[in-house]
Amino acid sequence: MVVKTELEKLGLHYIDVKIGEADIIEKILPEQLEQLDVALRKSGLHLMDNKKSILVEKIKNAIIELVHYSEEQIKVNLSDFLSEILGYDYTYLFQDDVLEEWNWDYWEKTYIEFLPGLTVEEANSTLQYNAETDTTQFSAVFIPTQRLKELKISLEAGYHLSLSERFTATFGLEFGASLFYRELRMEEKWIKRFKLDTLTTDEYDYEYRFDLLHFAPSKKGTRIYLAPSAGLNYYLDQNFDLELDIIYTQYLSHSQIGWLEDLLGVPKDSEKWFPVDSKFLIRFGLIFKY
């Protein structure tokens, strides 16, 4: 693979290289990035440093893998597949600097005192660590992952409009409360390299890999929401219909419905710890009638 070859030429070590993404152990210097970009462009590739562009590229590559390279029969819808591949729910991809936002003293309690040269600012921005002695080398990659669970209690009003013998338009409005539970965990992937064989010229000839997992204090609360929807049903036969729905969910802020949140006893910091302002869902399915 071109990317692996060019990384090795620059003396960079990688954990994994896949379509559109490479997980590098070391902190890459600006001149190395420039050399890598020049080398990749010769092969028709290029580096991406814009977060929005990177996200779009990840989604595109996930779809390509789903359509062209998966040998298994597709048994999940596209939104579920993208969530599994990218490692987080794409309804809140706009969030940056999760460790700072969470206010979790992760580095102070774990590594700042024990890892020479590591600062909170550098750790939050790079999520990497490298250190070298005369006989060993340590390196680590830190992977923060969030999970958001929702239990919705709601009332929904709907209207069906017959357009023809087979087509029916549907309109709905859902009003309810979302009880959420938000988790943050930090996965650590460590590599320790040794010089064991004194007869070899290699700097390090043995490596030991180990993983660790830490959990931050969880956050929970309640959000009030409105979800208008519109859809189209197609009658196949007496047992089956095809359904296409478009659902927009808007979570209402405290400034809009503070009186209702106070009445229901909604925790004051619910809005702060819920990372989603709105959701837009397109759903296509087969309805079985019995």
The largest pleated sheet is described as: 7 strands, antiparallel
Fraction of residues in helix = 25-40%
- Rg over CA atoms, rounded to whole Å, is 25 Å
Tell me how many strands there are. Answer: 9
What is the averaged pLDDT score? Answer: 76
Count helical runs. Answer: 9
Q: Which outline best applies?
A: extended
Q: Into which percentage range does the β-strand content fall?
A: 35-45%
Unreliable runs, pLDDT <50, ≥5 residues? 78-95
Alpha-beta content class: alpha+beta
Gap from first CA to last CA: 53 Å
Question: Would you summarize the structure shown here?
Answer:
By secondary structure, the protein is α+β, with helices and mostly antiparallel strands. It has 9 helices and 9 strands. A hairpin with a 4-residue loop joins strand 4 and strand 5.
Structure description:
This protein has 290 residues and is of the alpha+beta class. It contains nine helices and nine strands. It has helices at residues 2-9, 30-41, 51-69, 78-86, 98-102, 106-110, 120-126, 254-264, 270-273, and strands at residues 14-18, 21-24, 128-132, 136-162, 167-194, 206-215, 219-235, 240-251, 278-288. The strands form two sheets. Strands 3, 4, 5, 6, 7, 8 and 9 form a seven-stranded antiparallel sheet that branches. It has a two-stranded antiparallel ribbon with strand order 1-2. A hairpin with a 4-residue loop joins strand 4 and strand 5 (167-194). Helix 3 crosses helix 4 (78-86). The longest helix is centred in the N-terminal third of the chain and has 19 residues, at 51-69. The protein is extended, with a radius of gyration of 25 Å. It starts with a helix and ends with a strand. Mean pLDDT is 76; it is low at 78-95.
